[in-house]
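Q: Given only this backbone (73 positions), what sequence would you predict?
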């Protein structure tokens, strides 16, 4: 998913030089305490998906030798 999203943005915008990543959820603490599945979903949304985006974007920007990324956690 992220690769296609980044490729579409890159071609639509004629490159990517600035990125703001600012999203996440506020999990239901009680549900996460009793459900591994709920906890894993929150970890994916709030951490792993950002790592995926950052890895793909930083590699692209490094290759282009330009760009700035700001992440709000």
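A: Predicted residues:
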């Amino acid at each position: 998913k992220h690769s296609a999203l980044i490729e579409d943005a890159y071609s639509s915008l004629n490159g990517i030089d600035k990125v703001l990543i600012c999203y996440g959820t506020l999990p239901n603490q009680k549900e996460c305490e009793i459900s591994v599945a709920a906890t894993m979903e929150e970890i994916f949304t709030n951490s792993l998906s950002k790592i995926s985006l950052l890895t793909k974007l930083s590699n692209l920007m490094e290759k282009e030798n330009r760009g700035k990324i700001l992440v709000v956690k």
